[in-house]
Amino acid sequence: QQQVKQSPQSLIVQKGGISIINCAYENTAFDYFPWYQQFPGKGPALLIAIRPDVSEKKEGRFTISFNKSAKQFSLHIMDSQPGDSATYFCAPSISGGYNKLIFGAGTRLAVHP
Amino acid sequence: EAGVAQSPRYKIIEKRQSVAFWCNPISGHATLYWYQQILGQGPKLLIQFQNNGVVDDSQLPKDRFSAERLKGVDSTLKIQPAKLEDSAVYLCASSSSQLSGNTIYFGEGSWLTVV
User: Fold this and answer.
1) Which residues of chain B have a CB within 8 Å of the CB of A104?
2) What are B39-97's pLDDT values in tens digits?
3) What's the rounded Cα separation, in Å, for the pair B44 and B25?
4) Going by C-beta distance under 8 Å and a sequence separation of 6 or more, which residues neighbour residue B80?
5) pLDDT, tens digit, 9 for 90 and up, residues A21-32
6) A44 touches chain B (CB under 8 A)
7) Are residues B99 and A41, on separate chains, in Cβ contact within 8 Å?
8) Which residues, 6+ apart, have CB-to-CB distance to B62 below 8 Å?
């Protein structure tokens, strides 16, 4: 678990604002960089993911930015909505490593109306 | 398509007792995972199966935890004897392949409280 550090631990954003969550990693063997979203009482669900051959990926209001040299990737949520209130985890996995996700500690996002 | 099914959803036991959790993965998924999620933390992989063989159990406390996946479909996770620090959500997950990058689908979890 120490291989992956998420920040901030918690985040409060007004409706319509931009939420930014960061993930720093140590292991250069990671080759798959997903973000998972978890609502209370539910299991995590894949939100968006990126491979290291691209620096950015956008799906609707969600964007991953990837900085290989800095060993960081981030999640941007544009036009944040109250329904986005959840805990977000970065969970990279290792190339050839049997699809083993290494989860960060999580960021609890609250979007206020 | 049905998701990953887990039971029971909630369990309260006394320390030193035993408990078992059951998981039915998404149909056709060869890879099955058990994760432990302690309150306020990210999930931690306990064991990973490819069909009915163990791929990774490096973080499974083998003196008290055991898991099996008979016939390569359903799986059970057992804890015996339970300790207070085992209080957590036990998440079962599955994916179609063990290769890195294949989407892992999680169940809703089995909540364990050890008192």
Assistant:
1) 42
2) 999 999 999 999 989 999 999 999 999 999 988 899 999 999 999 999 999 999 999 98
3) 18
4) B17, B18, B19, B64, B66
5) 999 999 988 989
6) yes
7) no
8) none
